[in-house]
Amino acid sequence: MKVTIFDLEFDSECCYIQKNSIVEKITFNNRTLYSKFKKIETPPTDILIHQHLNRELTLALPLVENGVVNYLVLEYEKEKSDYFYHLIKHLLKSLHLNNFFTYSGSKENMVQIFIPRESLSIEDAYQETEKIETMLEMKSSKRCKILPTQNLPKFYNIVTLPTQKM
Fold first, then answer.
1. Which pTM was predicted?
2. Which range marks the domain in which residue 58 is found?
């Protein structure tokens, strides 16, 4: 089912709702991960999306569907965001990634940048995110979360939906 929020369109058969406590313990690559996101086996309804936009709950969608990725996502804290945003904007243009969307995330000071990628294989997505991460490390000491990542199971490369367009 198609899920549209702002300029973003996801094709998802499930969604995730963030809970206050740990929902699942996952062992992956000799690490133990704890998730507060409960998987719902149906696409998000308009009511859930509305509640998310009003910050009544936090809703997330999977980035990987059937081994394909349609968005690369960068998330970072908003403090000193002007400098970091311009750095990322310049970095993406140097990689010929001129089309991207910027939003406020579900956390109050979170900025999310969605880079549309048409039906990119998961392996190619990993390569692109690694390239962005490497270039970003050369330019700045500030860290940001880049998805999808090989450091998480494919089914846990999920992204919280944005709450406001910037």
1. 0.90
2. 2-165
